[in-house]
Structures are given as structure tokens and as C-alpha cells.
Amino acid sequence: MPNPTHRRGADDSTEALNDILLRVGQMNYTWTNTESLFIHVIAGLAEVEKDVAVVIFLTLNTTSARLDLVDRLAKMERTSPEQRDKILELTSRFRKESTLRNRYNHCIYSFDPEGGPPNTIMMRIADRKDKILVGKQEKADDREIANIDASVARLRQLNLDIWQTIATFGYPV
């Protein structure tokens, strides 16, 4: 006869893992959708057509490289202080969301067959002075779910703020 407690725990754990994966998917979708708006900012700051900005954006392979480009264009002398300050504020806000996003995108997930919250296992090597650390584990509990939800909300607001900035400065759409 199957152990009903064990089965319930496994179902709860599977549901918790599905819940966290759904939220990570929402975070990734919101992140990617928001990051792509920097195409318009690149077009505006570089004074190029949007299709040229798309090529530039896609040629840069990382978010970090794309944001560095946007920051550097914003810091050029020809950029007004108002534009510069606004763009740097937007890229700073976007960068702040990267820690949580990277945590959930550069890990594997394990779940507790007894029904506890899933764990994340980092797929990164941390170099220390005299050793390396591999596979740091953390619980993906209700607090972490709330952190992901808050990040998605901040990214959605950032998305709206970037669109407003595009409109304010007349960048190509």
C-alpha cells in the first residue's frame, strides 16, 4: 500500500517547483521584453535608424555589453544632461534586477520529495583565496517567490518608464 503522506509531499513539492518555474518564466519574459526596449534608446542616442540599432543590439552578445553601450552613448558630450541622467537611471535600475535573474537562470533545481520548498543549486564556480566553491544550495521558499514577484513588478514599471523616455526624447519607435 502506498504511503499517502509521502505522495502528498511529492505532489506539494512538484507544485512548488512548478510555481517557481512559472515565476522564473515570467521574470525572463519581462526581462527580455524590457531589455529589447534599449534598441530604441540606442537608435535615439546614436542617431541611427531603428533597424541599424537592432543590428547593433543583436551583435552584442550580453546584456552587460548592451547596457555598457547605452551608458557610453548617454555619457557622450552631445547627449543633454537631462537625457544622460534619465538613461543612466534606467540602466542602473535594469542592472539591479540582474542578480536575482542570474541566480534563477544559472542554477539547477531540486525538490524535496517530502514536500519542502525546492532548492536552487548554483551552476557557477566561486573562486576564493585558497579554494573554490561549487553548487551552493538555497531554498526557493515563499520569501524567494515574493522576491521574484517584486522583481517582475519592478521590471514592468521599468518597461513603462523606458517607453515614456522613448516618447519624451523622440527616439525612433
Rg from alpha-carbon coordinates? 20 Å
Order of secondary-structure elements: HHHHHHEEEEEH
Which spans have pLDDT < 50 for at least 5 consecutive residues?
Answer: 1-8
Sum up the overall morphology in one term: elongated
Class from helix and strand fractions: mainly alpha
Tell me how many strands there are.
5
Total helices: the number is 7
Q: What's the pLDDT, averaged over the residues?
A: 90
- In terms of DSSP E residues, the strand content is 5-15%
Distance between the termini: 63 Å
Biggest sheet: strand arrangement: 1-2-5
Largest sheet: 3 strands, antiparallel
Amount of helix = 55-70%
What would you note in describing this structure?
Helix 2 packs across helix 3 (50-59), helix 2 packs parallel to helix 4 (63-74) and helix 4 (63-74) runs antiparallel to helix 5. This protein has 173 residues and is mostly helical. The longest helix is centred in the first third of the chain and has 33 residues, at 4-36. The protein contains seven helices and five strands, in the order H-H-H-H-H-H-E-E-E-E-E-H.
Summarize the helices and strands and which ones pair or pack.
Elements: H1 4-36, H2 38-46, H3 50-59, H4 63-74, H5 81-96, H6 98-105, E1 107-110, E2 119-122, E3 125-127, E4 132-134, E5 137-139, H7 142-169
Helix pairs in contact: 1-7, 2-3, 2-4, 4-5, 5-7
